[in-house]
Amino acid sequence: MSRCKLIAGNWKMNQTASQAGTLIQALKAEFPACNSCCSQGPDVLVFPPFTSIAAVLQEAGTCLQVGAQNVHWASSGAYTGEISTAMLKELGVSYVLIGHSERRQYFGESDETVNRRLHAALKAGLKAVVCIGETEQERQLGLTNCVLEHQLRWGLNQVSATDMQQVVIAYEPVWAIGTGKTASNADAQAAHAFIRSLLGTLYGQSCAEAVRILYGGSMNAGNAAGLLAQPDIDGGLIGGASLKPADFASIIRAAKQ
Q: Of the listed 102, 134, 172, 192, which one is catalytic?
């Protein structure tokens, strides 16, 4: 099955509204003629901070999809600092990022809360990028597959095969995020193949073959081509390089090859 590549930029806590608009303009300048997915491809998605979403949507046009970096499971209420699906839908975002390792590490995100956020997003008609990945200690102990299976099973609990059409999985080895370290092409492919195999067990082979799985561990302009050439790597969740228009554009071009 041919899966259209997806290149997603996670801006994290960077870019004010005015800076975000300028960044999108610079990125669009790299691609004066935008093409839709699977003609030239790939899909391109950015996750700005909440305060910059409106500015990005104003500049994005039809070439870029826009997502939010988090979403709460409640529709409204006393949840200071959180944001609801209705708020995001009214803005016009199409995706939400759920369970990023920094949310897990610094803000107490768990597999249970990942699952609750995912169900809220899907119920609202939003697509989701769900992040999973092991720490360096877990990797050294040979627990990578155990961690991935636990996070995937619990994060996708009671999510149907039909709903999985709106879900993207991002494998982000925690030890490779923001460290400059990157899994080898072979190691990244092995993790992605394991994830797809597990999706096959949970949902059947047809569903598993349709789900896009992104690599999210310090993909950059220098290593993107090799990673994206692997059969089970369907794109990238890009951090720092997504803030550099030329570098992000280079990764997008690598996904077209």
A: 172
